[in-house]
Design goal:
Blueprint lengths: L11 E9 L4 E11 L2 E11 L3 E6 L5 E9 L4 E5 L2 E3 L7 H13 L1 E13 L8 E12 L18 E5 H9 L6 H14 L7 E2 L6
Parallel strand pairs: 4-9
Antiparallel strand pairs: 1-2, 2-3, 4-7, 5-6, 5-10, 8-9, 8-11
Helix pairs in contact: 2-3
């Protein structure tokens, strides 16, 4: 059996939209699934999400850039990797990532590679995220950044953490943001062979 995720869609016999917000929607699907006495229809609630990108920015000293942001749902200040929504139709994902790195952290990168692809919470959401590795970093002069930070992004303290130290913080339970956790561990694993197995920035998701 091939250990590889593949597209699959079980029969949906009915669907109802429960909520429509600024970023995501919630719908209830009635899905035909195997049961104890044959097939049966069950309800599954789904958060419909536009998708996102994340960035592990790694400098020449092999330090990872982390920014701290307030997250209201868990009630925490979380140290995170820069990330953002796929909110521009037709925009290549690496360009979305480059825009987010500039807006949230004030950096641009010379090299972009695909680090890892994930579904952030597949038991309840269709959100798909591509995490990039960004290298060859240079700081952007503040007057060249055409973006006004407000709300959760009004104050984003930034730190550079050595990659090995960041891995230790993940394993010690000190970092919880899924983009940061996944990206840090993936970057650490990829470094073992000099990042040779990374896919191109524009590699297909499927």
């Amino acid at each position: 059996m091939s250990v590889r995720d593949t597209p699959e869609r079980w029969e949906v016999v009915g669907s109802t939209e429960r909520f429509a917000g600024h970023v995501f929607r919630v719908r209830s699907d009635q899905v035909r699934m195997p049961g104890l006495d044959g097939m049966e229809v069950v309800t599954r609630d789904i958060v419909v999400h536009p998708g996102s990108v994340g960035i592990v920015a790694l400098d020449d000293e092999e330090r990872v850039l982390l920014i701290r942001q307030y997250r209201h749902a868990p009630g925490r200040l979380l140290w995170e990797a820069p990330a953002g929504l796929r909110d521009v139709d037709g925009e290549p994902l690496w360009r979305t990532a480059a825009r987010e790195l500039a807006e949230e952290a004030g950096y641009q990168a010379e090299r972009w590679d695909t680090l890892v692809d994930i579904f952030t919470s597949p038991g309840m959401s269709d959100e798909r995220q591509r995490i990039f590795l960004a290298r060859g970093l240079t700081e952007i002069p503040p007057d060249e950044i055409d973006f006004q930070r407000v709300h959760e992004e009004a104050d984003l303290p930034a730190v550079w953490v050595p990659l090995d130290e960041a891995v230790g913080k993940v394993l010690a339970g000190r970092l919880h943001n899924p983009t940061a956790v996944t990206g840090i561990l993936a970057a650490h694993a990829a470094r073992a062979n000099g990042f040779r197995d990374l896919r191109a920035a524009d590699a297909p998701e499927d």
